[in-house]
Amino acid sequence: MIDEASIKGNIAELLERIRTCAQESGRSPHSVKLMAVSKTRPASAIRAALAGGLSDIGENYIQEARAKQEELSSEAICWHCIGPIQSNKSRTVAEHFDWVHTVDRLKLAKRLSQQRPPELPPLNICLQVNIDREPQKAGVAPEQLAELAEAVSSLPNLRLRGLMAIPAARSELAEQRAVFAEVRQCFEQLAKQHTYMDTLSMGMSRDFPAAIAEGATIVRIGTEIFGARD
């Protein structure tokens, strides 16, 4: 049973925390968007998040997301793909999502561009950077970002918006800020060439205050909105 009141209350509390974090960093509260990460959650939980004022929904699993998209087709939702994309799922993503945060190879970007329906606006793209260079984690190495960004920016049905990162877990605020600062520096370097880039997708439940302090424009929150998974 989904507790809509709890979800709405959690969102209100998070938005207040985001506002405070932004203001303490000298930023406008409106410069940070809260995305609800709804993997494994039912469509009813997403409806509760929408009732709480959110419209950006992040999904990790394509097949699961499609079922929810169909159930919620009458709702005004901006759908973000924030999980890995297998080649056989790229068409589904290109046809049914507004954003992809996990582009880390040109082959995938080309498929998304080719498969994006012409009647839809360009697909918003974030390049996923493996800032800690973890071998088990997806993402492009920082030194390879410039080449990938140049190639992606030339594809006709994509719009390069910025970077996404999932750093390794760190417990200390200073350590969290340091690694998010590295991501921001990568972004700033790219933005010298790609001046239209405007998005830093970084920060989750455990570390979003540090991410906001270092320039995050989208924070991706699941547990603190929907509660612990069963």
TrEMBL record:
Single GO molecular function: pyridoxal phosphate binding
- Name of one Pfam family that matches: Ala_racemase_N
Domain Alanine racemase N-terminal, chain residue ranges per copy: 15-229
Q: Where is the signal peptide?
A: none
Is tRNA-binding among this UniProt entry's keywords? no
Which UniProt keywords are present, listed alphabetically?
Pyridoxal phosphate
- Assigned protein family: Belongs to the pyridoxal phosphate-binding protein YggS/PROSC family.
Name used for this protein in its record:
Pyridoxal phosphate homeostasis protein
State the species of origin. Litorivivens lipolytica
